[in-house]
Design goal:
Elements (H helix, E strand, L loop, with lengths): L5 H24 L9 H7 L4 H14 L21 H12 L4 H12 L6 H10 L7 H11 L7 E7 L13 E7 L5 E6 L4 H19 L5 E4 L17 H8 L3 E4 L9 H15 L7 H17 L11 H10 L1
Helix pairs in contact: 5-6, 8-9
Length: 325
C-alpha cells in the first residue's frame, strides 16, 4: 500500500470536501435539499465564494476529472510571472545608480505606467540578480548622482519651536527651512503658523535668498506628506499654495515615505544642529531678536561652519566648487 505524503493527504481532504459540496449544491439546484432553499444559503454556510465554487464545479462537470477540482497555479497563462527583460534591465540600471526599491518604482511609474513593478516586484528582480543589498560602490554611486550640482534636489521641512522661546510669552512659532542637497546651503524663515499659505511664502523667501546669494535654481524639492506641502495623492495641486508655487517655478515635487523621516534626513540633521547651536536652553527677548539671531546663525552655518556630510568643507565652498564646473 503506497504511503501518502502530506501533500497527498491535503489534496485528498480538498477533493473530499469538494465532492461533498457538489452533492449538496446539486440537491439545492434540484430543490431537494432538506435544509437549504436557496443557493446563497448554501454558499453562506460553507463560507465559499460563488464565483470560485462555480468555476471549479463547471470545470469538473465538463471534464469529469478530479484534477480540475484542485486549485491551479496562479498567474497569467500566456507568460510567466517574471517581468520582461526590458523592465528588468531598467530596474538594474537604476539600482546601479544606488536607488532603493521604492525610488525605482517612483522613477519608473511615469514611464511604464501600469507595467511598473511593485516594490516587492522590484525587490524580487534585485534578489534574482543578487543586487538586493546596496554595496559600498552602489552607495557611492548614489552620492555622486545626488551631489552632481546645486539645485538638483532641495529638502524642505517645518520645525516647531518651544512656546517659551520668547521670554515671558507663550506663543506658537515655527521655522521653515530649505536646504540644497549638493552644497548643504540652507535658509530658514520664522512663521507664526504652518498653514499652506504661510509655508508657501516662507519657501519663496528661502528660494529667493538662495538664488540671489548662490544662484541656486531648484529642479526638484522633497518634502514630507504634511498638509502644508500638499498630499502626494491630491488631484487638486493647482489649488494648493505650495504645490502651485512649485508648478509655476517648474520644480518637481517629491515626497518622503510616510513615517520615514530618514528620507528627508539632511534637513532633519539641520534641525538638530540648529537646536544644539542656537536654540537649546536659550530664550529671546522678542520675535525680532529671534529673527536677527537666526539670520546671523544661518550666515555662520553657510559660510563658516565645516560640514561632515561634505568632507569637512563649508557649504559656501561647495557653492564655489559648483560654480567652477
Amino acid at each position: 500500500m503506497p504511503i501518502k505524503t502530506n501533500d497527498n493527504r491535503f489534496q485528498q481532504r480538498y477533493l473530499d470536501k469538494y465532492h461533498f459540496m457538489i452533492k449538496e449544491y446539486e440537491l439545492v439546484k434540484s430543490k431537494q435539499h432538506p435544509k437549504f432553499k436557496f443557493a446563497k444559503e448554501f454558499y453562506h454556510v460553507h463560507d465559499t465564494d460563488p464565483r470560485n465554487f462555480l468555476r471549479y464545479y463547471n470545470r469538473f462537470k465538463q471534464s469529469g476529472k478530479e484534477i480540475d477540482l484542485l486549485p491551479g497555479k496562479r498567474g497569467p497563462k500566456y507568460r510567466t510571472r517574471r517581468p520582461i527583460r526590458f523592465i528588468e534591465n531598467k530596474v538594474l540600471e537604476l539600482r546601479e545608480k544606488g536607488n532603493s526599491k521604492l525610488e525605482i518604482v517612483d522613477i519608473l511609474k511615469p514611464k511604464l505606467h501600469k507595467f511598473t513593478p511593485s516594490a516587492s516586484g522590484v525587490y524580487n528582480i534585485l534578489k534574482r540578480y543578487q543586487k538586493n543589498r546596496l554595496t559600498p560602490k552602489l552607495k557611492q554611486n548614489k552620492r555622486k548622482i545626488i551631489k552632481e550640482r546645486m539645485g538638483q534636489l532641495g529638502h524642505i521641512d517645518c520645525h516647531h519651536l518651544s512656546k517659551s522661546v520668547i521670554r515671558g510669552q507663550n506663543r506658537k512659532l515655527y521655522l521653515a527651512c530649505l536646504l540644497d542637497d549638493y552644497s548643504k546651503l540652507a535658509w530658514a524663515e520664522v512663521t507664526e503658523d504652518i498653514t499652506a499659505l504661510s509655508v508657501m511664502f516662507a519657501a519663496l523667501k528661502c528660494m529667493n535668498y538662495l538664488n540671489n546669494e548662490y544662484s541656486i535654481k531648484f529642479e526638484e524639492i522633497i518634502s514630507d506628506n504634511g498638509p502644508e506641502f500638499g498630499p502626494a495623492q491630491s488631484k487638486k495641486k493647482h489649488g494648493h499654495p505650495f504645490e502651485r508655487l512649485l508648478i509655476e517655478l517648474d520644480i518637481k515635487h517629491r515626497y518622503t515615505r510616510p513615517y520615514r523621516p530618514q528620507t528627508n534626513g539632511k534637513v532633519e540633521r539641520f534641525w538638530r544642529t540648529l537646536k544644539e547651536d542656537l536654540i537649546h536652553e536659550t530664550d529671546f527677548d522678542s520675535l525680532d531678536e529671534l529673527k536677527d539671531e537666526l539670520l546671523q546663525y544661518l550666515v555662520y552655518y553657510n559660510n563658516e561652519r565645516p560640514h561632515q556630510g561634505i568632507d569637512g568643507k563649508k557649504p559656501s565652498e561647495m557653492a564655489s566648487l559648483n560654480n567652477k564646473k
